[in-house]
Amino acid sequence: MITLAVFIFFAVLAVVAALLVVVQKNAMHSVLYLAFTVLATAGVFFALQAEYLGAIQILVYGGGIVVLYIFVIIIVNLKEIVPERRGLVPKLFLVGVPVLLCAEVVTLVMRTGFPSAPSGPEGSGFREMAEMLFASYLLPFEAASILLLAVLIGAIVVARRRHIDDPD
Amino acid sequence: MNILGIPILTLVTFFPVAGMVVVLALPGSRTRAIKLAANIFTGLEFVATVLLLTRFDASSGDMQFLERVPWIKAIGAQYLLGVDGISLLLVLLTSLLTFIATLSSWQAVQKRLKEYYVFLLLLETGMIGVFLALDLLLFYVFWEVVLVPMYFLIGVWGGERKLYAAIKFFLYTLFGSVAMLVGILVLRSQHQTFDVLAMLAAGPVLPVALQSWVFLAFFLGFAIKVPMFPFHTWLPDAHVEAPTAGSVILAGVLLKMGTYGFLRFSMPLLPDAARRYAPAIVVLALVAIVYGALVSLMQKDMKKLIAYSSVSHMGFVMLGLFVLTPMAAKGAVLQMVNHGISTGALFLIVGIIYERRHTRLISEFGGLASRMPVYAAVFLIMTMSSIGLPGLNGFIGEFMILMGTFPVSWLWTAVAATGIVLGAGYMLWLYQRVMFGRLANPANESLKDLTLRELATFLPLIVLAFWIGIFPKPFLAVLDKPVEKIIRVVNPAHFEVPR
Amino acid sequence: MTSAASSGLGHFIPEAVLLAAAVASMFVHLFAKRGGRRAAGYVALAGIAAAAVALALTPPSAETFFAGHLAADGFALFFKAVILAAGALAIVLAFRFFNVEGSEPGEAYYLILLSMIGMTAAVSATDMVTTYVTFELFAIPSYVLAGIFKKERRSAEAGIKYFFLGTLSSAVMLLGMAFVYGLTGLTGYAEAGPLLAGGSGLAALVAMSLFFVGLFFKAAFVPFHMWAPDVYEGAPTPLVVFLSTAPKAAVVAILVRAMTSLFGGYSLEWSGILQAVALATMFWGNLAALTQTSLKRMLAYSAIAQAGYLAIGLAAWGEPARMAVLFYIAVYVVMNAAAFGLILLVGGGGRFDESVDGLRGLVRRAPVAAASVLVVLLALVGIPPTAGFMGKYFLFAAAVDKGLVLLAAAGALNSAISLFYYFRIGKAMFLEDAVPAAPGAGPAVPGSVSRSVTVVLALSAAALLLFGILPGLLTAPAVSAVLGR
Amino acid sequence: MFALIPLFPLLGAAVNGIVGIRYFSRRAVGVTAVGAAGLSFAASIAAFAGLLRSAEPVLVKTLFTWVPASLIRTAGGTTIPFALDLTFRYDSLAAVMTLVVTGVGLLIHIYSVGYMSHDRSYARFFAYLNLFTFAMLVLVLGANLAVMFIGWEGVGLCSYLLIGFWFTKDSAADAGKKAFITNRVGDFGFLLGTGLLLFALGTIDTAGITAAVEGGMLAKGTATAAALLLFLGATGKSAQIPLYTWLPDAMEGPTPVSALIHAATMVTAGVYMVARLHALFSLSGTAMAVVALTGAFTAVYAATMGFVQTDIKRVLAYSTISQIGYMFIGLGVGAYAAGIFHLMTHAFFKSLLFLAAGSVIHALSGEQDMRRMGGLRKRIPRTYFVFLVGALAISGLPGLSGFFSKDEILASAFASGNYLVWGLGLAGAGMTAFYMFRLIFLTFFGEERFSGETAHHLHESPPVMLVPLQILALLAVVGGYVGLPRILGGGAWFGRFLETSTGAHESHLAAGTEVLLMAVSVAVAAVAIFAAWTIYVKRKGEPARRFTERFRALHRTVARKYYVDEAYNRIFVGGVFVAARVADWIDRRVIDGLVDGAAALARGASRLSILFDEGVVDGAVNGVGRVHLAASSLLRRLQTGFVYNYALAVVLGVALVITLVIVVL
Amino acid sequence: MIPIEAVIGFGLIIFTIGLAGVLVRKNLVIMLMSLELLLNGVNIILAGLGRHLNSPRGSIFALFVIINAVSEAAVGFALVLAYFRHRKSYDTDSLNDLKG
To answer: Least CB-packed of A1, D559, D584, E60 within 10 Å?
Structure first.
């Protein structure tokens, strides 16, 4: 019961913050609300007893990504407020389409529902997770490391002002 | 089954490709060598096809010199070539007309010689392959191979609107052939083979409804090629813009690919559908006969006139095929050859004055007979051949078609026979306007008569025109069995003995 | 578990070689002084060659490795070969392009390699998590590649578009994967598949739809294709050669695996989706290409249309269809690489000299290249005796065998439509005379047609002819790849 | 033996046409051509003698199989092999025809040597002439309808070539084409008739047809249809109503051609064909009636036009049409031998008349208009004499050939009970006599109306022209005696000779009636000649002028050939051209228009899809309220490269796919 | 016990907000953040399902998604920056150089 209450609290918090992320005029404000969302989501993870995930969420998202956003915005001084001229009807349309899609998915998925444990209980604790990660999911883990290498190179290539040995 | 163990049909099919390689290897500056090589190769090719005759068994209706090699194992396609009387005649026609077309290009073609002869030789391989292939996929491959060189022949060496004509030709015929491809696919999925002989042996395993669909798909492909009314409008454009050699081959051989397809594939493989649609096709053929002739009357351009006359003549061929009687069908096949000879020659004839005067407008000419008597004689013979004067080749075909049609319907015969009247009308009018009358246009004053080389290009055609007209037996003899075999499959009722 | 991994490693030497080559290329680029960029390219090319050799020596295996995450079957090997070919072609063409551009981002070479690692792993992946990670592994470098000419606004714009839309679609795919996991509790295709088929109905279909949409997007199937013309137009041409071919091959492999094992119980439904997609893609791509004025955009739409034919093969489930898909994807890579490669022939090979007119009279300047392009065009249209015809033929035949005659007919019709725009190129090259150089034309002198481009085109043309006349050379491995599983 | 007959002219044509045209002297050309004709004539005589001696009434020679056998299904429901052989058959009918063709042909060849001596295309002329002889011989010797058709069309071709011999003259070229095409219309009937017979009987061999018909294998209706179709062919070739209009125009050809082709031989091919298939025609009363009536009407109708012609050759042309009408009367009443008899005598006197007219024209340096002649009796007396003989023969002066043949036809017509036909025939006889003598009086009597220049050159023809004329005149006089009727003491040998090929025809007339009929026709002719003399000699043409004044419209109508040419031009030629124009329009606008339309449609679809791709989603979103913008700027707005509308498309696509899967599948 | 439907619904709402953000906003940075929301939504669903099924795979999957989110953020920012240098703006309205 308490977990449910905690879940609902954080869920509502996350939804409200997420909405605010999207509607801000100033990107800097959005980042702050994004931090709220991320933290609220971490709370949800805790409520779902995915403590490890919650921790990662706080560390990587809250400590990494959000800070990255702030840094970038400050570094390149992107404080411009983009005037977003768009009429009400198009806005409603653009919001309506994803909402309808979501509604469609929800109704269809909920009609069948999810079976309780089709593959048998494996336990969802930190220990089981760690074991399985290094036993079964070693390969994607390795692949993720190559991914990060690629991202490193890619981000540097694109973000740097010029190529390393460009004459200009 | 091959002569002395040599895969003779492969040789015949791909010999022009060898010529193509030789021409490609020659430096582009040595024009004479290129011309010579092309002429020698097409000439030798003709000789090679004639050599086929030495071992050909005319009394058999079966495929001969079969060559069967597995090709694509995954789908069971084979490299399967064979020849029977029908193919033989058309192969001979092809090699002869290609040779003549090559010869006629000696002076007519001045630019980009090397490419020209390369395409011409490639075209020949494609055409011969079409007539020899007995595997549907292989057939389709050759069928399409023909398109590309023709596209370039029209597009590079053609007249003013060559680009339009070339792409129209290509697109139009491609639309037909992809429809045919779908038909081939369905046939294959039903028979589990591409082998036409095996399909024939298996008999009509397709239900009639499916046959009809396949037939219609094939129909599109073949009818556009023939071209049947109302799919014919690419033809006048292509003919008018094509260079002379292109027109000769286009009219002489390419159109036959369509009728050949009907006879070789549509009819025996889909007999029920063929029977079912025969009346409709006959009606279209009759419309083509009359309509083509009428439109011919209105043409101001000589080539266009002859192009429309082809529509009419090919209507005759289609009529002969689809009344489904052996006599008419044989006449139709012979008429294919005849049309190749006479229309091919007529295009050469137009080409000759076009080369001299750079116009094909009828109104530019008149009274040429007094300047060019030999030319006039050749033109006259071919005109007469085209309108079916007895004693010349055209008559035999038309006569057999009409006689073969009569038992099926006197009305069809009557309508077709009006085509003969109209045919005389537009051809004689053309002849009169070009050859007769006073030599009014000063530009024509200095026209030279045929040179010996030009006369030599006509000679084989004239000989053939008389030969087929007077003694067609050798030609009809090779046709007898294979055509009857096909008609027996399609229209067994015709052979039934009452009670 | 560790033993399984080490024993399995023998089957994935090509990936290892690629990784090593990527690192080597990077170091060469960073530490070699002058000409380091080009050297990086050569290293990358050598790496691909070595990987190809390794691939050739790798026997197919029926087992899966790394705890069921990777397969090393003939199917995967076939796709890996295709991807290697695409990468190699792109790098060779890049040499020329970077020369003309006067700027050579050497990072491109190892980004291509890294992306290829993602693809080669993705075609082997038999687990959703692996699929997802490897999918991102090849996607993220490809966003960078599209935008690598960051000084060029169009390239930067292409990169950012590709990024946003790609990420969006991969998120959609991820949502589908999440649902699959929710319905089965598992992430491996082979294990989850039977559970999924066990009567979960609607949810499974929704999951499948979401899963496929991400893939459709990457394959640029209509209606998920809109990014493609923009990105292909903006991205550097040789990288477009890569972006328009290799990811599609990888996606098709993923699709086939997912369709056969994970969603094997829903073949009727996914066949339906793919039929619709195939129809839409072919018609849309071909029609839109018809009136394009920019050569590159036209080819972009043509690439979309070509993918539509592939969808026919995917829709026609069954082994012949899969064989056809394999055959066609191989042919597709060669055809498209050559098609975009031919843009480098325009004028002097400059990047944005992209109108068809630039090819006018090419046959006079470069007969070999022109003849090769002709063969490529014929293959793109699907005219025998080219492999393009055979590929289409197999696809249509597979469809007809499954009773999808109308689909095959639509495909055939489309191939006829496509003739019109493809032969605008043929017309320009062969039938029209070169226009006199316009004032302010690119620096390249007409008459200098790069040897490397010519070589690539000629090799492509030769391959297309060879596989067109003797398709058995390609069908044999394709058949064994399909049946050997 | 008889197969050699056509060989010589063929060789002659080939030699002159291929070699002679370039390398032969005039003399060599002439010798070759005349030699060929002469050898052919000699062969004809030999063959004739052979036939007389032979016990077999029919000789057959098959050269080779022309069209090998094919299976055809006949009306009886049986499928039989049908082959066409290139076969010649020689019987009494063929014998008569070959003799006439080669005999008259030889004379005309000789005549032409003189007549054409100044023409540039001397060798070409003789090549054509020989070729014509060959074709005509194939026609008469052909044993089946197909071989006959070779000749049938061959003579048509030669006629075309010879009419248009002076092709630089537009009128000549036109006339040639008209002749050919009109004949083609007839061929249409011929071919269909052939097809019908083949279908009905399984054979088109003439003897086979006769045998089958006599064996009762042919239904009457079928026989009528076949006979009428074939008769359509005959009207074309023999210039009968309705296909006669080409013949007067054919006079554009050189005069010997008119004599040989358009008087003596080719135009009688129809007569010959009907006689050849007499069994078929006899079976159908309707067909016979049609033949007889067509002949009778043509005889009178053509004669009326003969009254008003001023061109000497045209008078003869109408006369020919009229006389062939007579032959058809004979055939139509079953008197086949009489028809052929008249064919033969007509060949003699009509070619005589034509050649003599040629001699006149020759003498007057090419003048053909009778209004510029007159008084030539004294200038060219020999020509006048033979002309007079011919005119008397055609008018039916007792004792001359025309008298016997014409009377036999009229008698047979009377005997058949078809008095309308008889009456028309009789009227025609009178009219013939009238216009022939009108011609004579205008040409040879009265004052000289030609110019002094012409008078200066006026001369009698050379012997090479006159001798054939004289021989023909002799034949025109005595030719009738081979068929001297019993009543006049003859044995009607001609009729009996032909019995083997045309069947017996017994006249049922009493002797007295026959004599009476003869007397009537002689009287009519005499009155007509007298009338002509009165009008044109005694009153110097005054009554004719007054008549013309009085009935101007009538005169003009007749002089303009009843406007039939104009009507034909309007209706048939014009009709065809209207149809052609319509077809041409359809071709360019409708059919090709559809093709181009399809292309345009594809382009339109293309533009539309691009438009959609590049932001119709955005347009749908932003379009509201922006309608007032100019179209071009709207288009610019639509073509955005924004991310979000692509993203929107992706999202919409997802929704679409899910909906598709759930709802449709 | 938290009902699974609630978790999935919640995740989908976050997902939808992200989706709408990508669609509606023209500010590239905010669009990037919306992408983060998308992935967050899926992560919630994955975690919830892992709990619901009593399986660790959900969390593992989500872990990889987070790794991916980081990668995307990095590359995305890099591209936005590069673009910004051309445009001095992160407004998508200016992102229309590539059009027909």
So the answer is: A1
Q: Which residues of B touch C415 (CB under 8 A)?
A: 174, 178
Residues of E with CB under 8 A from a CB of C: 4, 8, 15, 18-19, 22, 28, 31, 35, 38-39, 41-42, 45-46, 49, 52-53, 55, 57-58, 60-61, 64-65, 67-68, 71-72, 75-76, 78-80, 82-83, 85-87, 95, 97-100
Q: What pLDDT does B41 receive? A: 92
Within a domain: E99: no
The distance of D641 to chain A (nearest Cα, Å) reads 16
Residue D170, token pair as written in the block: 């537009």
Chain C CB within 8 Å of residue D656 CB: yes
Q: Is residue A1 located within the same domain as residue A70?
A: yes
Domain range holding E16?
4-89
User: Rounded to whole angstroms, what are the CA distances from C199 to A42, A118, C175, D46?
Assistant: 34, 12, 20, 105
| Residue E83 belongs to some domain of the structure | yes
Name which of D387, D342, D396 is nearest D523 in CA terms: D396
Q: What is the mean pLDDT of residues A116-136?
A: 76
- pLDDT score recorded for residue E100: 37
Domain of A64, CATH number, reads 1.20.120.1200
Q: Across the interface, do A147 and C184 touch by the CB < 8 Å criterion?
A: no
Interface membership of D663 toward C (CB under 8 Å):
no
CB contact (8 A) between residue A84 and residue E16: no
pLDDT of residue A84: 58
pLDDT value at E94 more than 60: no
Residue ending a domain, among A49, A80, A111, is A80
pLDDT, tens digit, 9 for 90 and up, residues C204-217? 888 888 999 889 98
Band of the pLDDT at B142, cuts 50, 70, 90? very high
Number of structural domains (chain A) is 2
The pLDDT of residue D639 is above 50: no
List CB contacts of D48: < 8 A, sequence separation 6 or more: D95, D98, D99
Residue with more model confidence, C63 or B47:
B47
Residue pair C376/C342 in contact (Cβ under 8 Å)? The answer is yes
CB contact under 8 A, E97 and C182: no
The DSSP secondary structure of C262-314, one letter per residue, reads ITGGGHHHHHHHHHHHHHHHHHHHHHHHHT--BHHHHHHHHHHHHHHHHHHHH
CATH number of the domain bearing residue E51: 1.10.287.3510
Which value does ipTM take for this structure?
0.87
Rounded to an integer, the average pLDDT of C113-130 is 93
Check whether A28 has a pLDDT greater than 50.
yes
CA distance B285 to B144: 25
Q: Where are the domains of chain B?
A: 274-490
- The model's pTM is 0.90
* Domain containing residue A128: 124-168
Chains E and B: 3 or more CB pairs within 8 Å of each other: no
Residue A75 counted as domain residue? yes
Residue of E nearest to D635 (CA): E100
DSSP one-letter string for C315-357:
HS-SHHHHHHHHHHHHHHHHHHHHHHHGGGGSTTS-SS--BGG
Looking at the structure of chain E, the number of domains it has is 1
Chain D partners (3+ C-beta pairs within 8 A): A, B, C, E
A9 and A61 inside one domain = yes
Asked whether the beta carbons of B305 and B239 are under 8 A apart, the reply is: no
Query: Would you say residue E24 lies in a domain?
Result: yes
- How does pLDDT run across C393-420, given as a tens digit for each residue? 999 999 998 888 899 999 999 998 888 8
Beta bridge partners of C125: C70
Q: Is the dihedral of CA C380, C382, C384, C387 positive or negative?
A: positive
- Cβ contacts of E35 on chain C, cutoff 8 Å: 164, 167-168, 171
Choose the final residue of a domain: A19, A53, A80. Answer: A80
Q: Say if E97 falls within a structural domain.
A: no
Residue B96, min C-alpha distance to chain C (Å): 25
Q: What does R_g of chain D's alpha carbons equal in angstroms?
A: 34
